[in-house]
Amino acid sequence: MEEKKFKRTTVTAALPYANGGVHIGHLAGVYVPSDIYVRYLRLKKEDVVFIGGSDEHGVPITIRAKKEGITPQDVCDRYHKIIKDSFREFGISFDVYSRTTSKIHHQFASDFFSKLYKDGKLVEQESEQYYDPEAHQFLADRYIMGTCPHCGNPNAYGDQCEKCGSDLSPMELINPHSTISGAKPEVRKTKNWYLPLNEYQGWLKEWILNGHKEWRSNVYGQCKSWLDMDLQPRAMTRDLDWGIPVPVEGAEGKVLYVWFDAPIGYISNTKELCDADPERWGSWQKWWQDPETRLVHFIGKDNIVFHCLIFPTMLKAHGDYILPDNVPANEFLNLENDKISTSRNWAVWLDEYLVDFPGKQDVLRYVLTANAPETKDNNFTWRDFQERNNSELVAIYGNFVNRALQLTKKYWNGVVPECGELLEVDKHAIDEFKDVKEKVEQYLDNFKFREAQKEAMNLARIGNKYITECEPWKVWKTDPKRVETILYISLQLVANLAIAFEPFLPFSSKSLREMIDMPEFDWAQLGRTDLLKPGHQLAEPHLLFQKIEDEEIQKQLDKLAATKEANEKAEAAKSYKAEPVKANVPFDDFEKLDIRVGHIKDCQKVKKSNKLLQFTLDDGSGTDRTILSGIAKFYDPADLIGKDVLFVANFAPRKMMGIESQGMILSAVDADGSLHVTTTLDQVKPGSQVG
Q1: Could you give the 3-state DSSP secondary structure of residue 94?
Q2: Which of 137, 495, 550, 576 is surrounded by the most beta carbons within 10 Å?
Q3: What ranges in 155-306 are assigned the alpha helix state H?
Q4: Which sign, positive or negative, has the C-alpha torsion 119, 121, 126, 127?
Q5: Residue 472 and residue 386: Cα distance in Å, rounded?
Q6: Measured distance CA(216)–CA(367) in Å, rounded
Q7: How far are the Cα atoms of 231, 623, 640, 645 from residue 648, in angstroms, in the given order?
Q8: Helix H or strand E segment including 459
Q9: What helix, strand, coil percent values describe the chain, rounded to 5?
Q10: Element (H or E) spanning 125, and its range?
Q11: Helices H, strands E: what count in the chain?
Q12: Is the per-residue pLDDT at 572 higher than 80?
């Protein structure tokens, strides 16, 4: 197929939900590759716009708002700022980053729906849905929980079981209940407006299966599996109170489906950008309705059906828009061999990373690109993060740059020397990197960012090998002129690295260009051997990358370990069922126990014991009482001093670890197996009896 030439490119990155921060899975799947691609096009002096924004409607927003007792808008405002600030600090170079709660977007999405409605492109249908009779509302899938029919998990949602990963429909759940009121939902009929995907199935097959065979195999394959089935009409409206009201008479209490509203955000955000600076960007129609504009969507694999089938059908039904030319969707990134999960807090959050590793944006960008899940799910580990930084960025890239610049400073006060006669070793090094531009371009043009970054790093490997073979520090003693040539070639390699890594590592590339005083550059110069002229004065060199120590990595591993422990406790609490009540006993038996209140005067760990704490109690008798209790791993002794606790006073004394224990502290066993001493709500005199 002949490749079509375009005048400009519109690049979109999936809109993140504003119900939490951005994590490394989002970065690896969408934002780092899209930023690399856009920076590359800008370096080539191509006309490109990069569109981003927050997705602020949908059930996840309302769930968090209810959980925190705030409004959905409060949730959106908080996370929109966190996400936008994090992207900016991380170097994701959006031309606009807006939001779907903006007035421009509300009007634009409403108008888009109205046109489809008036043109007869939507169908009105009744369907049966779950309704909460106590909350008096229809329930979105995420507001319904029940037992998973596949694995028996009692806490499966109406759209997915997070334990076994099965996709579900609410009607499949066993013993469903509303998460709003706890009530058993009723099945009721409701009216919504549907996009008749079935009417566009033939067109979609032709457009994708015949027209876009160049798409990534995971994208093409998922589209084909959907198109091999009979597509069904899909509801474009929902019975919710948070979102854009459906602009149709009789649609009160309904909003636009978030997956109808969100992708339109790409267009409305472009309009917002163009309206603010029409001289720079022209009209928004140029970017969305001109056939000479190329549209590229960067997304994760869970969004393929929406960006390749539903959104294109919406655009086709409208009639005025271009369609995506490519949708380079990535697979998923796991964290420490476990699926990243926002609900379980199993993630590395971008805003936290920027605090924990200040100035190391490029390290994370590099590692996420090196591990990019382009063809299959991949894994991020903190040890690999450390290893790639120390053995690749520091030991290869940074080491070569530092050697070349420091030797130039030492022998020529930082002035680029003349290039003399070329020996075979020089010609070989030049020959090795002369086609780097072609190789990197080939990979970037085909969205193979992992391979493209490898080629960029190969420049540093070539440079290290060359400078090691030539040994300028030895040759200087006998042939300074020869060293001039060695360092001239080395410095040209350094300048090439600054250009080659610009799309991948913009912060370190900027720092490197400052060190070699190369403010002006473009992609066309990559591969040249005259980027730094003889006599050019370099700036003071410094290390591009710093080694990451074990202690820094251990902190991150400890943080994840704490998260895992908290998740296990929460899971245990969810499935916890109280033990059956023991057989009845006569009240007289209970009265034989003398349970009293004791005031803890002192508490210490028992030497040579991992379990025992030694309590000194004021039991109201005027004589202190000693009691041993096996709760050492659950409490810091200092935290218990001054508390009032319940204890059994009339157990026979018992010796443990050579200490006589005069009774038993009463404790409750929690769902996770932890022990908690029983205390009184109010201050009670020591010795007071319980009964």
Answers
A1: coil
A2: 495
A3: 201-204, 217-227, 258-276, 278-281, 284-288, 304-305
A4: negative
A5: 31
A6: 22
A7: 69, 16, 18, 10
A8: helix 449-470
A9: 45, 20, 35
A10: strand 123-132
A11: 25, 26
A12: no
Q: Are 537 and 415 in contact (CB under 8 A)?
A: yes
The bridge status of strand 255-256 relative to strand 237-238 is antiparallel
DSSP 371: T
pTM of the full predicted structure? 0.86
Note the residue count of the chain.
Answer: 691
Q: What is the spatial distance between Cα 139 and Cα 128, in angstroms, rounded to a whole number?
A: 11
pLDDT-derived band at 63 (thresholds 50, 70, 90) equals confident
Q: Closest Cα partner for 612 from 662, 664, 650, 657?
A: 657
* CB-CB contact of 518 with 531 (8 Å): yes
Spatial CA neighbour of 671 closest among 544, 552, 579: 579
Using CA atoms, how far apart are residues 604 and 582, in angstroms rounded to an integer? 34
Question: Model confidence at 213, in pLDDT bands (50, 70, 90)?
Answer: very high
Place of tokens 């034989």: 592
What is the C-alpha to C-alpha distance for residues 277 and 281, in angstroms, rounded to an integer? 6
Q: Residue 115 is inside which H or E element, if any?
A: helix 103-118
Q: How confident is the model at residue 1 (pLDDT cuts 50, 70, 90)?
A: very low
Tally Cβ neighbours within 10 Å of residue 136: 9
* Nearest CA among 529, 526, 523, 525 for reference residue 427: 529
Q: Residue 61 class from Cβ within 10 Å (0-12 exposed, 13-18 middle, 19+ buried)?
A: buried
What CA–CA distance (Å, rounded) separates 236 from 115?
Answer: 14
Q: Show the tokens assigned to 341.
A: 């999960």
Confidence of residue 570 (pLDDT cuts 50, 70, 90): confident
Q: CA-based angle 592:594:599, to the nearest 5?
A: 170
| Closest to 553 measured CA to CA, from 435, 311, 670, 384 | 384
**CA 482, CA 479: separation in Å to the nearest integer?**
5
- CB within 8 Å of 637: residues ≥ 6 apart: 603, 604, 605, 613
At a CB cut-off of 8 Å and minimum separation 6, what does 121 contact?
195, 196, 317, 318
Q: Give Dmax over CA atoms of the chain in angstroms.
A: 108
Percent of the chain surpassing pLDDT 70: 99
For the segment 247-304, what is each residue's pLDDT rounded down to a tens digit? 999 899 899 999 999 999 999 999 999 999 999 999 999 999 999 999 999 999 999 9
SS3 category, 182? coil
CA distances from 63 to 86, 187, 689 (A): 23, 22, 46
Interhelix angle 480-500/449-470, nearest 10 degrees: 170
Residue 265 has, within 13 A of its CA and on its CB side, a CA count of 31
* 76-133 confidence digits (pLDDT tens): 999 999 999 999 999 999 999 999 999 999 999 999 999 999 999 999 999 888 888 8
Number of C-beta neighbours around residue 578 at 10 A? 6
Picking from 26, 11, 100, 658, the residue whose alpha carbon sits closest to that of residue 341 is 26
How does strand 613-618 pair with strand 333-335?
Answer: unpaired
